[in-house]
Records
---
Amino acid sequence: MKKILAIIILLSFPIVVKASEDYTPNATSGILMEYSTGKILYEKNANEKLAPASMTKIMTMLLIMEAIDEGKIKLDDMIFVSNNASSMGGSQVFLQPNTSFKAEELLRSIAIASANDSAVAMAEAISGSTSAFVQKMNEKAKKLGATNTNFANVHGLDDPNHYTTAQDMALFARELLKYEDILKYSSTYEAYLQKPDGTSTWMVNTNKLIKYYNGLDGLKTGYTSNAGYCLTATAKRGDMRLISVLMKEPTSQIRNSETIDLLNYGFSNYKIKTILKRKKDLGRIEVINGKKETVNIILAEDATNIESINEEKSYTYNIKSINQIKAPVKKGKTVGNLEVISNGIVIKTVDIIIKEDVKKANIWDLYKRNLKYILIGK
C-alpha cells in the first residue's frame, strides 16, 4: 500500500525537466504541442515515419465524430457486428458476430479499451467497408497537411504500409479535440460493455495516466512489438491544453514517465493568453432570402497566444467579415477572419463563422416580410 501511495504522490506533483533543447527522451520520436495555437514546444525526430499501433484509432475516432456531427450516424444508432469485425485480433471487447450495439457503446470501447473489433464495426457502418474507411482516413490526413502518414487499417495492427509521425499524430489529436465530447470517453477509467446475451466485458482504460496525472483526460495508447510503446496524451490546466506524442518507447513505464516530463515542461514554462473567447458575439450579418434576415457570427475557436511563463504582452484585434450572405446558410461557414495584433504585427488569424443554420425563405415568408416592410415604411 505504501508503494502505491508513493507512486500516486510522484505522479501528482510537477517534475521540472531540463530545457527542451537539452531534453532527450528514450522515445525514438516525440513532440509537445499547445492545442489552441498549434505551437510546437518540443520535438525530437518528429517527422520520422514509425508504426503508430493503436494510436491509429485517433484518426478512426475523428472520422466517427465527424460522421456523428454531420448526421450520417447517431450515437443511439444500432451498429451491426460482422464476422470480419468480430474476428479482429489484438485488443478487443469480444463482440459476437451478427449482434448489434449502440454506436456510443462501440465508440466508448474504442476510446477506453482500444477495441479493434469495435473500430472495424464502426468503420463498416460508416463507409460500407474498412477499405473505404481507410481511404477516408488517408484523405483526411492529407487535408490536415499530414504528408508523412499512410494508413493501411483502422486499428493499428502492424502493416509495412501503415505509418505516421509524431507531428502528424499531434495534428490528428488536435483535430479530434475539436469534438470535446470525445474526452468524456477517453477520460473514463473503467466501464462495462453489456452484451446482448446478458454477459458483459469489463473495460479498463489503456491510458493509466488519466487516473494519476492532474488534468490528463486522453487520448490514446499504442503497442505492438514493431511500434514499441506509444502514447498520444492530452492534459488541460487552466486555459492551456497540451498534446504530447511519444513513439517507440522501450517500456510502458518509461513511456508514462516521459509523457509526464513533457507535459510538466509545458505547464511549468508556458501560459496561454486568451485575447477573445470563441463564443463572443461579433455581431450579425444580413442573410439574403433567408428565413431569418440576419445571423450571428462568432469565432471558430478562441483567439489565443502562447507566452513564456514570465511574459506579459498586449494585444489588439481587427475584425474582417462580409456584410451579407445568401441563404441557405450552414452553421460553421467561414465569413471572415479576426486578426490578432501585437506590436503592430499580425501574429495570428482566426476564422469568423456563422453561428447557426439559416434555411432559405419560401414565397410565403417573403410575402409576409415585404408586407411588413410596406406597413412600417421600410
---
Amino acid sequence: MHLGDVFNMSSYPFIDVDSGGDLDGMIRFCSSVLAEINEETRVIPGHGQVSDYQGLKDYITMLKTVRERVAELIGEGADLDTVAGALPTAEFDEKFGDPTAFLNRVYASLSRAGR
C-alpha cells in the first residue's frame, strides 16, 4: 500500500492547512487504510523506509497523541509558543526530528476547526 506524503517515516508530516488539509483528515485516512490492510502488508511512505502494519499503527498513535495534547492546550487558551514549549511531541522527536513546522500546522489545523 503506497500512502504518499500522508505517511512520512523520515520526519513529521506536513499538513497542508492552507489548502484545506487538517490533522483530523490525516488521522481518518490513515486509520481507514489500517482497517483495510493486515500484518503482511508492506506500507510505502512518501518519504523514508518501507514500513508495515505496525509502523502505520504507531504513526497513527503519534498523530492522535499529539492531536489530543495540542487540542487540550488550545482549549486552555494556549498560543502556539505555549504549545511548543509544552513539548507535546517529546517522545516522538527522536524518530521524527524537529517538530517546529509540524506543531505549527497542528496548531493551525486545530485552531481553525475550533477543536
